[in-house]
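Example record

The entry below shows one chain as it appears in the dataset: sequence first, then structure tokens.
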Amino acid sequence: MFSTIPQPLPPKITGLNISVGSFLPRILMPSSEGVELSPIDMVEPGALGVCIYNPAPVNPMPLPPPGMDYASRLAMLDKRGVSFYIISGQVFPKLESWRNLAGLEDVSFLCDAEKAFAAEVGIPIKRLENQRFRTHAALILQEDRVLAILLEMDLAHNFEKLLAALDLAEAREPGEYDLPDQPTY
């Protein structure tokens, strides 16, 4: 039912040790659920998931700008039966604080402050015009199998492309996406 998403060649991703078709490491990390969990525990068996992976000790995504409603975007994923969670290098108390400020109290996360997961998966670095930038990635998953790696995509950035990648993972033609919110800057 689910398919590996054919991807055009992105800008060179150095430092990333996973690829489409590989599995996320089953490293136990502190979770928002109060117990140690691994990525396989974050998605129902056989289901699709979206993981925002940010190995850096910074916020996984920006706080929503005026007009953007993360809850309505999460509802779009929930309606599709897609799990959403975060793996972050941010320390646990700061990650909880950020989650509350962002209005994402119901979003689960795994805390990789010890960097064990980042050491195995790698830190995505994109190269543009001979410059290197650390970045974050959205991982489209079936349980813990990687179906797509999307740089700089999350609930705030390029959300329509994330929805299109989910359509491709379900062997559906990507469509037009009417987002329920429009940020103002």
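Notes for this example: Helices lie at 70-79, 92-101, 116-121, 159-169. The longest strand covers residues 48-54.
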